[in-house]
Amino acid sequence: MATPEPQYFPSMQKPAVSVIISVYNKLEWLRLVLAALEVQTFKDFEVIIADDGSGDDFKKGLEEYSKRSPLKIKHVWHEDKGFRKTRILNKAVKEAAAAYLLFIDGDCVPDPHFVADHWHNRAINTSLAGRRANLSERLTAQLNPDKIRRGFLSSLAFYRHVWMDSFRKRSKHAEKSLRLPTFLYRLMPKRSKGILGCNFSLHKQDLLEVNGFDMRYEAPGHGEDTDIDLRLKWAGKKVKLLKFQAIQYHLYHRKLERESNNPVIFEQVLKNKEVATRYGLNELE
After folding, report:
1. CATH number, domain at 75?
2. Is there a contact between 118 and 102 (Cβ–Cβ < 8 Å)?
3. 254 pLDDT exceeds 80?
């Protein structure tokens, strides 16, 4: 007799996956992401909102959303003291109930097969690195939670819009919106690619071995993704590219400022080659 498809995991059972979403304000974006998670084909997961200091309106809005959503949502927050994404991610990791972790950003909307693709491709001592298609301002404005719940992201109309916008140089990397069935994907040649913080997964134990994320990175951009990628590789972990699987769509917005001390920190990491950072999970107050 076939086992029925699991619903969002029962309260007394540990989930298979903890989906960790890094956010800072922008509840309207997070609603799109959560709506997409509500219609995943694989449902045995919890959601942890890693909140880098959002304001009261965001917190109230998220609380109201959580009451109505079928998702199991945890909200992990710390005070706003500037960009401290790696610190709040470490806090979220400590709250994660699952043995497998999947990281996305609050401005990246996942395809309905997103969690399933990460789960079914998981491997021991391996991190899975996905990519994203970048939506134009016009396409971003067309999305809303109800359309996503009705399957808009899987529709031919949406794919047509993405590719037409790409031809017009508005949306970018439309080829990364192509998803192959698993049996075809496994026939494709594989190559190594670095981790993007908005789309990667790994066994929790692998992250614990490198003491989590280095909390010295206090600006977006250079360093914080490459740092975790390198230290995992130094620890003997593989990084496997999920090309044509684990699709997600990056919402349009202006780029954040990139000036920081990150390059100096990263050079120190390269010089010392310490697998387990001295500024990670174990150093949380």
Report:
1. 3.90.550.10
2. yes
3. no
In-domain check, residue 117? yes
**Treating both helix axes as pointing N-terminal to C-terminal, what angle do 224-234 and 262-272 enclose, rounded to 10 degrees?**
10
Q: Give the count of domains, the chain.
A: 1
Q: Whole-angstrom Cα distance, residue 218 to residue 164? A: 37
> Considering the domain boundaries, does residue 233 fall inside one?
yes
Which pLDDT band holds residue 1 (cuts at 50, 70, 90)? very low
Cα four-point dihedral sign 118, 173, 223, 235: positive
Q: What is the distance between the alpha carbons of residues 152 and 282, in angstroms, rounded to a whole number?
A: 42
Rounded CA Rg of the chain:
18
Classify residue 78: in a domain, yes or no: yes
Measuring CA to CA, how many Å separate 138 from each of 58, 79, 141? 24, 33, 5
- Evaluate whether residue 126 is within a structural domain: yes
- 23 DSSP β-pair partners: 51
